[in-house]
Structure formats: structure tokens, C-alpha cells
Amino acid sequence: MNSKEEQKNLKPSSRRRFLKESAALAGLAAVGGIRSAQAQQAFGLPAGERQVGWVPEGSIPQQNILRDPWTGEPLRDPEGNPVVDWTGSPQWEKYRQGARGLGGPLYGTRDKDFRLYGYRSRYVTSTRIGTNGANCPMPTNIKTPFFSLLSPLEDQMGVITPTSLSFMDEHGYEIPDIDPKTHTLTIQGMVDKPLTFTMEDLMRLPSVSRIHTVECNSNGTVNHSNRLQPWATPGDIYGELSCNEYTGVLLSTLLQMAGVQRGASWIWAGAKDSTNHTKSVPLPKAMDDAIVAYGQNGEPLRPEQGFPLRLLTPGWEGVTNIKRLARIKVTNEPGPFLREARIYTTIRGDGKIRWFQFMMPPKSVILRPGPSHPVPSRGYYEIRGMAWSGQGRVRRVEITTDGGRTWKDAQLQEPVFPKAIARFVFPWTWNGEEVTLASRCTDDQGALQPTIAEFAKHWGTTPEWFKTPRSSVWRFNVIQPWKVAGDGRVTNAIFTV
Amino acid sequence: MRYLPFKHFVAGMAVFVAGCVGALAQTPSLSGIGRAPTPEELAVLDKGAGPSGKDLPSGKGTAKQGAGIYAIKCAMCHGQNGEGITGAPSSQTFFKAARLGGGNATPKWQSGPRDPNAPPEIISGSFYFAFPTTIWNAIAVYMPQFRAGSLTPDEVYSLTAYVLFKNNLIKEEDVMDRETLPKVRLPNRDAFVPNRIEDLQDWDKRGCRLPYGVCP
């Protein structure tokens, strides 16, 4: 009954037919009974005998019968049997409960059908980090109880943040439920031809697919819960960061189709959500590398990241990456709108207020060793981490293993994408003594992460000022040190380098 | 498979490459994709105004009129007197609840702990923003939450006037319209650097790239 032996004995033309049939049947057999007598023969079953699990035609649920998409007629195989996809049918559910194939009961097929969309091992428990910001709102009936969900960076192994672990900041609290069939994007304002695009229109247009970070401008701020605590992990500190592959159409393509008029210098990008969040973006950025994205890590955007459409402004603060993008108005002045007129500005020591800063500065962080990855014994460890800059490519990452006295180059994983996470590694041998590790990043514009003393001077204050959680400490890109104690525990050593 | 003579292969490749180059040289036209928005759609979408006020629609309102609208449409989240309600759906930020009125101080750098005897500083939006059109935008584009953009121009002028009045920046009977609103001067206008909008996009002049990638 070995199908391979059967295969060898067949002549070439019937071999081809066998392969074609069995390929088709393998697909359908996985989802249901083998109905064709010929197929039964090919699989070594006695012809004419009904297989266990055979379902008479009258009992097949109507919605599981595959139909010709043009005529609506049930598809039939050469023997005249209807072609059936058993997914979701009661017969399939009954079969699946006891099946050891298709993943088996240990994979969880008893409780849930994971064929359709996979899941990870139950021994992998990494989850996003929830926070309500500094001032926790009271119990609420809002659907998404958390204001933001941070990415557990210490568990990220590569450059790409897994979609389900990508961070989310939802200023409006609610994630809208948008039907992509009715969603549109309108280009209006100082254009020759205002245009409205459906999702289908946008997906026809020339596309790009690029790997980019999205990062909140508060990422790393002293204000976040746990950030100053010794047990803070890289996720607690820098979790408002994710790096995904975004697929979409360049905004410049859409603007060229509409025809931008002379004198235009800004765009207003607006969302369709509970407050129609809108931001002003300089036109040169819109024409440079801004993407109107519909894809994230190979599948459509998740609702948390803006399904069905998102504006991506690579390297710029997360709030300009408008989710649920619905309109672009081309104009010659900024709004300013709410989230650039107050929050998202920073006050200086001399009382002046910085606004419209946009670009995210270079940052880096060692992921291992760390509070969740202590060093159990002396010997070799590969120090691993990530570095990123909104200004361009990471050019260089240096590591110190002696508290900042000396610095050596780490090895960057190639290729290094611009405005994306770069992965770095550094071989290290621990001799059992207490030591402070840190990383610092230089980007291709020449910007270098500051020490806390340098950053405090830039703010017109002293390092002490940052030791109390304060709001509005944005773009806090100081070097992040980690202390390795003699017993192998690793703690957040902020302010020591 | 029959053996393909090399010269045929070369000829075939030459034709193939020429075809590719020919195809790349002419980008196909994208016309016909997307449609013109209807005037109604444009009107719904086209909300918001820049500092010059040229995008402001026609209409007008006073703070007196705004008080009536406020009581019905805004007070449940923003409080009877514009004081803001903690925990309201709109208290979405790190800061206190959505306070609108009673502003009496512009933002200042806080180097040490606050003097407990000093009067409380209320830095409302009107005492932080650079332009009165930002108040307009907040009301016309963002509000009411869950019905964003549903107010008429007269309502928005009235409510903008109400907010300005509650911050003692205009009188209760001052009429706000497309001419008068952009002229209201907010107390914090000159705190911003760079001060002129025209200078905002010059990153190198602003010194944003170096030395740490953060604007000074």
C-alpha cells in the first residue's frame, strides 16, 4: 500500500495524472473524506468501499460546498461528487477533536483550530507590557483599557518586531472597526486635481516594501513607570518602538497624481477615528520617503497599527504616522493641531519651547545580558542589542564593558536598513566581577548618543533634574548602562555613565 | 530538452534585455485611478485652519452663544465651568483632565520643587498654544470625541469664543469670525523656537542633526 511503489509502477502519462490528482486530493483529503473511487484506488483503498467518515451528499453543509465563483454552481470532480472544503463544519470539528495529525492534541487542535492562523509554543510566554502612562485614568468602560502597550524588546531576537508584540499607543482609547471596502483616502487642498482613492485603487498603484521603525517621541523618557527602577527591562525603557516591514504606495506617487501646486509647503494628514487625529507634515518629507502603507510584516495592517491604511513617516516621531489615514490636505502652513501645539513640544531651561522637532535621534540598548537575561556563571556571553536612528542608518555601535572608560566597536548585522533597527553583537567574557555595560550609537549623520551629563547640559540643567519622573522629557536618548553584579544579576544603571 | 545553440541564446537575451529596457523607459500612466471627490465629501473633510486664517469658513459666534452650546455638548467631559473632569473619556493624556478655562500662567521651566505658597498655576491650552486657530482646530476637527467634526462653523466660532473668554482673553460679547479670530494674540506666542513658521523646516539652520540628533 506504499504510494511510492504505486507511483513507480504507473506509466508516465498516468503518473502525471496520479500526481495531479493526488496533489489535489492531498489538499482536499486534508479537509475531508476521499470521495473519488479512482482516488481511493490511488491511495490503496479497495475500490467502491466507502471510507470511514463518508458523508452522504445531503448531509454536507451547504456553505462548505465550493462553487464556481462566476456561475455559483457547485463544483464537481470527474466522478460527479461535489467538491467540499470541510473547514468549520460539524463533521470536521468532530474529526479534529480526536485527530493526531494536523499538529495533534499537544499542538492544541483539541481546543482551537490553529490550522488557519498559527500560534506559538505554550512555553513561550513573552507578552506586551501594559501601561496607563504616568497618571492612571480610573476604571473605564472603554474597549481598550490600556493607553499604550509596549513591546518586550528583551525578547526580540532579530530586526523585525513580531506583529503581535508590536507596540501600540492609542491616544483616542478606542480602536475603530473600519470596513476596508468603504474606507477612502482623499487628497485635497493646493492640488490641481483632488482625488479620492479606495483601498483597491491604492493596491493597484506602484508599491514599495520597506523595513522601518515606528517610535513614540517619549520612548525612553524618565516619566514612564519603571523606567528609573533597577529592575526595568529594555521593554520597560524603550518599548514604544517596533520595527516592521511596511508595504504600500509612496505618498509622492499620490501627490504627483494629484499635482501639487507651486507654493505648497506642508500637508495635513488626518485620520478617521474618534477625534480625527490630524498632524502637519512638511511637504519635503511627504515627497521624500513617506509611505501610505496597507501592509505590515507581510499581511494587512493590524487594527492596532491603523488598519486599513497608515501614513508612514520613516524616522519621525510615531504620532506623525497617522493611523486610519483618510485625508491629506496640501497647504502652505502648519495647523498647528492639538498634538503638535502642546504635547509633543518640550520646554527648555531658558523657558523657550521647542516645537516641530519631528526626527527621532539615535538610540541603542543592550538586550542581553539584562534584568530578564542574567548571567548565570563566568565565561563567554554574546552581548546582543539593537540600535536605531530616525535620521538615517546606524553607522557604528560601540560597547563599553568597564563602565564607560573604554569603548570598542560592536559588529552590526548586515544589511543595515535606514531608519530601522540595526542588530549588533559583541563577544564578551565575564570574569565574575561587578561591571557596567553600555552601548552607544552613531548614525550616518554623525550624531552620537550623549551621556547623561551631556544631555543635561543640552537641556540647561543638571543630571539630578532627571531623577524624578517628569512629564515632557522627550527624545531622551542618553546612553543606557546596565550593571552586572557579582551574583550575575543585571540591573538598570541609568545615570551612571 | 534539446540543446540550444549559444548564438540563439545570445540573440534571445539581447531581445529580452531590449524589451526590458524599453518597458522601463516608459512608466505607464496612472491616470484613471482614483476619482474626484464630490463637493459634499470635500466639505466634510476640509476642516481645520492655519494661523493665517485663510481656511476659516464664513460664520460667527460670541462667548455668550458658546456657553449655551457648551452646556449641551461639552460640559459632560470638560466640566460645567471648563475645569475639566478627571477620568472623562477625553482625559487621554498624561496631564490632568481636559481643562479649558481659567488659564492664568504660561508654561515655565521648573528647576526645583514648586513653592507651596504660590497661587496655583493653571496652564490651559489657550495659555500654551501659539495661535488661536489651534483652538479652532481642536474644536472643529477633533471634537466632540466620537463625533469628531460634526459642529457647524457658527458653533465652532461660538465655542472658540467661549474658550477664549473663559481664559480672559476676549470679552463675552466679542464676535469671533474669520477676520477677528486670527488676530487674537495668545500669551505664549513668543515662547516657541524657532519663532517664525517659515524657519521650521530648515533642520541644518536649526541645528537639529548634531550633536545628538535633537533640536536645540
Give the N-to-C terminal Cα separation of chain B. 69 Å
Corresponding CATH architecture of the domain at 44-107 and 120-206 in chain B: Orthogonal Bundle
The count of β-strands of chain A is 24
State the helical fraction of chain B: 25-40%
CATH class of the domain at 44-107 and 120-206 in chain B: Mainly Alpha
What's the average pLDDT of chain B?
84
The dominant shape of chain B is extended
Terminal residue distance of chain A: 71 Å
- Write the CATH homologous superfamily of the domain at 44-107 and 120-206 in chain B: Cytochrome c-like domain
What is the multimeric organization of the chains shown?
A: heterodimer
Structural class of chain A: alpha+beta
The amount of beta strand of chain A, in percent, is 15-25%
Q: Could you name the CATH homologous superfamily of the largest domain in chain A?
A: Oxidoreductase, molybdopterin-binding domain
The DSSP helix count of chain A reads 10
* Rg over C-alpha atoms of chain A, rounded to the nearest angstrom: 28 Å
Total E-strand runs of chain B? 3
Write the layout of secondary structure elements.
The complex is a heterodimer of chains A (497) and B (216).
Chain A (H helix, E strand, L loop, with lengths): L2 H7 L2 H18 L7 H6 L47 H9 L30 E3 L16 E3 L17 E2 L14 E6 L5 E4 H6 L3 E8 L18 H5 L2 E10 H8 L7 E6 L6 E5 H6 L2 E6 L2 E2 L9 E3 L12 E7 L6 H4 L4 E2 L5 E2 L8 E6 L10 E10 L5 E7 L7 E2 L1 E2 L9 E9 L4 E9 L8 H7 L21 E5 L5 E3 L5
Parallel strand pairs in A: 4-13
Antiparallel strand pairs in A: 1-2, 2-3, 4-5, 6-7, 7-10, 8-9, 8-13, 10-11, 10-12, 14-15, 16-17, 17-21, 18-19, 18-22, 20-21, 22-23, 23-24
Chain B lengths: L5 H20 L13 H7 L14 E2 L1 H11 L1 H4 L53 H11 L10 H14 L9 E2 L14 E2 L9 H4 L10
Antiparallel strand pairs in B: 1-2
Helix pairs in contact in B: 3-6, 5-6
